[in-house]
Specification:
The protein is mostly helical. Helix content is about 50%, strand content about 5%. Among the domains are: about 40 residues, no CATH class; about 90 residues; about 130 residues, no CATH class. The strands form two sheets. A three-stranded antiparallel beta sheet has the order 3-5-4. Helix 6 packs antiparallel against helix 7, helix 14 crosses helix 17 and helix 17 packs across helix 18. The termini are far apart.
């Protein structure tokens, strides 16, 4: 406890001494800028303000309610303020100043010279060492640039003066050329009119020729003249049309044999044959009747001899044979024995069918008709109707396994053209004809494979049945067919 009391006494004594010393110091109130005046050499920095510097600042008066006419009183009151000049440039909410309001713009060399003047006038300011050299380079570059601009303007002015007469000369030349071309066009039109008139006169037959033709038509021709005329027409027939292969419905392979009633009740009863024109003519020659003369034109019918030359006796027909009498008997035939042939759907020929046929001949034409010259001949490929007839004929045949002669690559085009249809040709025609007769010219992929399998199985060759898919994918590779893989099953269509 004694030590604590000693420490507290010592602390209180020191506090009284500090208070006594603080009260002994006099308080001094220094004025404004005391340190700046005492520590800085303001005399070296005081100078007259430049007009350009004055333009950067403005003097404003503070809002004081007490107005005093004495400047010293106003300055002492602290109402005078110095503020920066506001920038009056263009902003989104304020229009840009017009050229008259902005005043005259300073040139680059003037600004550079003013900067050099400040550097020379105030050397005590520590500028960067390269500032003066950079400003001098800018002044030289500005002078050189202005000189180059003047030279380029002069060159441009001279070029415009030099090009003006050349362009005018080109226009004059083009106008002269247009006049010459118009004169040539007028001459060619006259020549065309003259040639057209000559051709029209050449087409019109002369009066003498007209009279000769009319007299030749009126005078009857003798048998010898008719024979000579027919022979001349035969030898003078042009052969241009025979070069182009045209398919029609009157093919020999399309003929149907008439077997009569093929039911069980009358298997051995043939249909009564009709007598041909040659046989009837032979009978008339044998009876002494004159034969009718040959027709003068393809549309002329055989002339019937007059009634006076025909025999007056009625022709006695021979008694009917037993077979014919057997046909006349009404025998009940069961309805199940009569074979009813299903109706074949005929494909509807339209614009799409014509396009399919054209692409068919351009892609697989060599397969459908080996040795054809539709690609090089001037004639066009067969039309849709003839092509469908040809495909129907090929699809009605039975494919046979390829022989070594047909599969050899050394066979000429003529040999292939005269050879019987191959299995590839028959299967391709069957598939294409089935697609053409189908609605919308499309079938499911499984249905197409079934058709090819059924046709290939008729040949009796297992190898042909297993390789029938090559026919389909061969046409797909040649871009004649395409397989659409949509939702559900795959559809085979023509790629047009």
């Amino acid at each position: 406890m004694s030590e604590f009391s000693d420490l507290s006494d010592r602390l209180s004594r020191h506090a009284r001494e500090i208070k006594k010393n603080a009260l002994a110091i006099q308080s001094s109130t220094p004025g404004p800028f005391a340190r700046a005046v005492l520590s800085t050499e303001l005399g070296d920095l005081i100078r007259d303000a430049d007009p350009s510097e004055i333009g950067l600042f403005t003097i404003t008066r503070g809002s004081s309610k007490t107005l005093s006419h004495d400047k010293e009183a106003q300055n002492a009151s602290g109402n005078v303020q110095i503020s920066r000049v506001e920038f009056h440039g263009a902003t989104p909410l304020r229009k840009s100043m017009t050229r008259k309001e902005r005043g005259k713009e300073s040139q680059p060399e003037d600004l550079a010279k003013a900067a050099l003047k400040y550097i020379d006038k105030y050397p005590q300011v520590n500028f960067k060492p390269r500032t003066q050299a950079r400003l001098e380079d800018i002044i030289d570059a500005v002078d050189e640039t202005r000189h180059n601009i003047q030279e380029l303007n002069e060159n441009l002015r001279q070029a415009e003066i030099a090009e003006a007469p050349s362009v005018k000369g080109m226009l004059d030349e083009e106008e002269l050329r247009i006049r010459e071309l118009k004169v040539q066009i007028a001459e060619y039109k006259k020549k065309k009119e003259i040639l057209t008139a000559k051709k029209a006169r050449m087409r019109l037959p002369s009066p003498t020729k007209k009279m000769a033709v009319e007299s030749a038509r009126k005078t009857p021709l003798s048998e010898v003249d008719r024979a000579d005329r027919a022979e001349d027409e035969f030898w003078n027939t042009p052969s241009n049309k025979a070069r182009t292969f045209h398919l029609n419905d009157n093919l020999l392979m399309d003929e149907e044999a008439e077997f009569g009633d093929t039911s069980i009740a009358s298997l051995a009863s043939p249909i009564p044959t009709s007598r041909s024109g040659f046989a009837s003519q032979f009978d008339e020659d044998r009876q002494g009747a004159p034969s009718p003369p040959p027709p003068e034109s393809p549309t002329q019918r055989i002339r019937v001899p007059p009634r006076s030359q025909m025999p007056t006796q009625d022709a006695v027909l021979p008694p009917p044979k037993k077979q014919e009498a057997h046909l006349d008997e009404k025998t009940p035939v069961p309805e199940t024995d009569i074979a009813q042939e299903p109706k074949k759907t005929k494909p509807h020929i339209n614009v799409e069918t014509e396009r399919i046929v054209v692409k068919m001949w351009s892609t697989v034409g060599e397969i459908l008709m080996p040795g054809n010259n539709f690609g090089v001949a001037p004639g066009k490929p067969p039309e849709a109707k003839a092509t469908l007839s040809h495909l129907n004929y090929l699809s009605s045949l039975t494919p046979s396994p390829a022989s070594p002669i047909q599969s050899s690559s050394s066979v000429s085009a003529a040999t292939r053209a005269n050879a019987p249809p191959t299995a590839q040709q028959i299967l391709t025609a069957t598939m294409l004809f089935t697609l053409l007769t189908a609605p919308n010219h499309s079938l499911p992929l499984n249905k197409v494979k079934e058709v090819l399998t059924a046709k290939a199985s008729t040949s009796g060759s297992a190898a042909m049945v297993s390789s029938h898919s090559r026919i389909l994918y061969g046409c797909v590779a040649k871009r004649l067919l395409k397989i659409e893989r949509g939702s559900g099953e795959q559809i085979v269509k023509f790629d047009i």
